[in-house]
Amino acid sequence: MDEKTDRVDLPALRRDIMAVQRRFASMGPEDQIVSILEPPDGVLMSCSGGQFQWTGSTSVEYSTVPDEQGYFERLEEELVDDVGFTTKRQFSPDGESERLIVTSEDGTRYSVKVWTGISKVQVTSSSWCFTVQPGQTNGGEF
Predict the structure, then answer these.
(1) Is residue 58 helix, strand or coil?
(2) Distances (CA, A) of 61 to 20, 55, 102, 110
């Protein structure tokens, strides 16, 4: 990111965020991964002042149901000494489900959800707000 203009290299931003999504979604047993769904692009969402944030997701399906609390604890333990990330637990408004929110030092927010009914872990993300460089959105690929 160019600190003077808050412009980013969108392909690099996408690549970096997707790598973290994949890392967080595939923390379960490697030999139990059935499939990984990772769309090659994300969506640009509007922020104020003509800025945008990149959003995307990665889902990993496991052959056995991941233990939600164990999964969150393993990820929290991995990140406890990493000054680049902070974690917190968050319940849905109805109190029925929990997710782990991981925030990176650059402001990117990752939401980790364990879907025990379908043996899947999904990580959705949203970056900080930035200015898109001219020509970066040609073709609609984000």
Answers:
(1) strand
(2) 17, 21, 20, 18
Q: 54, 123 in Cβ contact below 8 A?
A: no
Tens of pLDDT, residue by residue over 128-137, are 999 887 777 7
Question: What are the start-end ranges of the H helices in 26-111?
Answer: 68-79
What ranges do the domains of the chain cover?
10-131
Comparing CA positions, the residue from 112, 113, 106 lying closest to residue 12 is 106
The whole-angstrom separation of Cα 124 and Cα 60 is: 12
One pLDDT digit (tens) per residue for the chain, 142 residues? 444 556 788 889 999 999 999 999 999 999 999 999 999 889 999 898 888 899 999 999 999 999 999 999 999 999 999 999 999 999 988 888 899 999 999 999 999 999 988 999 999 999 999 988 777 776 566 7
* Partners of 33 in beta bridges: 62
pTM listed for this prediction: 0.89
Q: Are 119 and 66 in contact (CB under 8 A)?
A: yes
